[in-house]
Amino acid sequence: KLFFTDYGNAAKVERCDMDGMNRTWIVDSKIEQPTALALDLINKYVYWVDIYLDSVEVVDYQGRKRHTIIKGRQIRHLCGLAVFENYLYTVNSDNLSILQINRYNGSDVQSLARLDNAKEIRVYQKRTQTGGK
């Protein structure tokens, strides 16, 4: 599956097959400007940042079990999003800091580092990488 966001005429989070077929809206209400998106491949959850609502939310792959992880001023200007173990990682584009957020309760928001010109973040875990030569 391919997951993506759109905030043109109607903001939404969507999924489709890798060939573009079976396009399905999984979130289309109470959403304004979804930008960064990350997947929990093990538990089949989709996380996204809404930069207009200053929120990070989550749903399952079918658009159910929606809830807000964190909302408010402390997470303004987020870009990029990654999931690793119990945390979400994101970049605050205002002060270029890497933030760590507990993905289960939105607590434990910590600034880990500052990077010049950071706009995206990825977590690479050895277990999820295919063996290459």
Write a structural description.
With 133 residues, the protein is mainly beta. It has a domain at 2-82: Thrombin, subunit H, CATH 2.40.10. The protein is 0% helix and 47% strand. The protein has no helices and eleven strands. The strands form three sheets. Strands 4-5-6-7 form a four-stranded antiparallel beta sheet, with no helix packed on it. The two termini are 26 Å apart.
In brief:
The chain is mainly beta.
Q: Which structural traits does this protein have?
A:
11 strands; Thrombin, subunit H; about 130 residues; four-stranded antiparallel β-sheet; mainly beta
CATH topology of one domain: Thrombin, subunit H
Order of strands across the biggest sheet? Answer: 4-5-6-7
**Top-tier CATH class of one domain:** Mainly Beta
Q: What class would the helix/strand composition place it in?
A: mainly beta
Gap between N and C termini: 26 Å
Order of helices and strands: EEEEEEEEEEE
- Total number of beta strands: 11
Radius of gyration, CA atoms, in whole angstroms: 15 Å
Shape: globular
**Percent range for β-strand residues:** over 45%
Largest sheet: 4 strands, antiparallel
Please give the CATH architecture of one domain. Beta Barrel
InterPro entries: 6-blade_b-propeller_TolB-like, Cueball_EGF_LRP_Nidogen, LDLR_classB_rpt
Protein name: LRP1B protein
GO molecular function, one term: Wnt receptor activity
Organism: Corythaeola cristata
